[in-house]
Design brief:
- The protein is an alpha/beta fold.
- It has 4 domains: 117 residues, Chitobiase/beta-hexosaminidase domain 2-like (Chitobiase, domain 2); 288 residues, Alpha-Beta Barrel (TIM Barrel), CATH 3.20.20; 30 residues, no CATH class; 212 residues, no CATH class.
- Helices cover 45% and strands 10% of the residues.
- It contains 24 helices and 15 strands.
- The strands form 3 sheets. An 8-stranded parallel β-sheet has the order 10-9-8-15-14-13-12-11.
- α13 packs across α14 and α19 packs antiparallel against α20.
- The longest helix is centred in the C-terminal third of the chain and has 29 residues.
- It is globular and about 95 Å long.
Length: 697
Amino acid sequence: METCFTLALNTSLLFEGWDGKPVLNAVSILKRDMAKTLEMTKAEAGQIFIAPPDGAISEESWIIEVAPNKMTVRTGGSLGCVYALLYISEQFLGVTPFWFWNDQRFIKRPSVPVPTGLYRSPRYAVRFRGWFVNDEVLIENWAAGPANTEHWLMVFEALLRCGGNMVIPGTDTNSRKYRQLAADMGLWITHHHAEPLGAEMFSRVYLDKTPSYSVNGHLFEELWEQEVKEQKERRVLWGLGFRGQGDRPFWADDPDSDTAERRGNLISDAINRQYHILTSHIENLVCCINLYGEIAELYRAGTLSLPPGIIKVWADNGYGRMVSRRQGAHNPRIHALPSAEDSKPHGIYYHCSFHDLQASNHLTMSPNSAEFLAAELEKSLDAGAGEYWIINSGSVKPHVHTLDLVSELWRTGHVDVTAWRLRYAKTYFGEQKAEAIAGLFAEYAVSTAKYGPNEDDRAGEQIWHHPVRELLCRWVTGDTEHCVNSLCWLTGNLSFPDQVQKLEAICRESLPRWEAFCAQCAALLPTLDEHGRRLFNDSLYLQGRLQRDGAAGALAFCESFYAWNDGDIVRAFVLAEKSRSCYDRSVGTLAEAEHDGWVGYYRGDCLTDVRLTASCMEALVSYLRITGDGPDFHRWERNFLKPAEERKVMLLSSKQRAMGDSKLAEALGPALNVSTEKNVGHPIGISNKPIDITEDI
């Protein structure tokens, strides 16, 4: 007796009673996946029938009844239908949630047997589950025109495959540009905490008006009402709130709001006006407010008055801890989860990707461990914040490992991290070396730089770039006598040299771990098959190299400053060039990963901006060369590289063109015996006695 349904390329898909794009798009995805995984066969195949909507089944739920000749999909709504067809794709065709982002290989088979029986949708631990595609500069600069639309479709498809049902489809203008595309895939639309109701930024529309609600409140309200009318036919989870003209507090541009009470009152007035506009146009409202940054502080201070029943969304600090975000050096770490006294419902805004111009992770995964992140997310559920999860996904590809972890948690509410990590490695890298790869994913978080006293004070790749560029600019412009205030979050109120030394200490503590981590990756790489090598090289090993070379570049920069500060400008020049070459390796690492369909993906790296750091370091090298070797640019070469007789006797001022900076630094290094080893009595292992470069023959 036949006990299986045969899923083959000639299996037909029929549906009735459905209109709208989400179901049509899901059918197209399943057909595409069948074409990727199945080859043409003459074997008789059955039919997949999508039954009309069933009012007895909830909108997102589904039931698949599998008989020998027919697979019947029953669901209550279009999103349930999308989930059911993606379940068939993953469960029976083997198409993984991040197939596109992790370059899954497909091997075609004649057919796939599907055991008969009843398959049911899971119950999710979180009601509204989605991504905020934020700081999406890699995706946005990857390609233009139709190709870029395809990339956004891959974002939304991956989210749906992870069980998501909601999205903020980009930042600023992108959120409006791609929200219809997201809605066509079946997703709810929600809004950036800096863009209430998804409205256009005030200062973009009214160039000559003051962006103050107390002055031009009627103009803000016109924008809000216009946006509600434009979106009311979509499924929208409306984001209420009020911030400034950008991702910062409004009082940065409105100095009259100079107390917590005034700020809270103004925000409350704006929110209640937004709510009134919504109720005049929309029935069955679902609304939220992000208690993010300064809003959380005002809420805890009791200065906000909110409409009843809206979802209060609590935010982590960008590093995975559910406390308020650090703003500059202000870091009160206010507990950011609801208490028993807070009225329900609640949700969270959580960062897999983060950008703060300090120590965050944009090109690399979360610097904190999966165990730490899972514990914080489970704690959020225990506190009652399970109504709404919006996850900052960045440009997706660097963060797929963490996004997969989060999807496991919003599905089930709990995760065995060790088992999950091994399952992830097997899914995307294959069985052969899965345990070793899973171990390296765990080791990554152990290797990250610890820059502060808190458990979550671990650094993404940006710590090797933003602080270095700030210090470099101050050095080159000649102000090394005063503290760099923008670095007080890292160093405290120290002198400039002591700030450099603080960064240097972080580099020295972290670099050996990254060198060991990359050595393990390099040893594992040749043991993987071709697909595994490419994916491993483009993901975990790439991120380790960005961290290692960033730490090495920052360390050499610090050493260069100390040499310069000691009057040893030649050694400073050589070390600055060493720093530049480290950052240049990071540029090469990103370029190496731009192959096949990923050509141009890292073109948009403008937030960490490893190219900019390398360029700034090149400028420092030139600055040191000009101030120390100019104006003839032969003196260092003559004094350190020429034979003694050439230094003393010169009938010609020079016999060849001056060496370029890189070539000269490379030649001077051995001549000066430059070492990064720490010597007793000096913080960075260089002689206290400067080299005499004043002799002029």
